[in-house]
Amino acid sequence: LPLSLLRNLGYLGYTSGCFSL
């Protein structure tokens, strides 16, 4: 996987985790 895609997925997971709290 491209590093940018991994970074985007990690960022989305991080933001969704913050919003769910």
Give a brief outline of the structure.
This protein has 21 residues and is mainly alpha-helical. 86% of the residues lie in helices and 0% in strands.
Beta-strand residue fraction: under 5%
The major β-sheet equals: none
Q: Span between N and C termini?
A: 29 Å
Based on CA inertia axes, which overall geometry fits? rod-shaped
**Uncertain spans:** none
* Structural class based on helices, strands and sheet pairing: mainly alpha
Radius of gyration: 9 Å
Total helices: the number is 1
Mean pLDDT level: 80
- Strand count: 0
The sequence of SSEs as H and E is H
What is the share of helical residues?
over 70%
Written description of the protein model:
This is Solute carrier family 38 member 2. With 21 residues, the chain is an all-alpha fold. The protein is built from one helix and no strands. The protein starts with a helix and ends with a helix. The mean pLDDT is 80.
Core attributes:
21 residues, mainly alpha, 1 helix, 86% helix, Solute carrier family 38 member 2
Write the layout of secondary structure elements.
Elements: H1 3-20
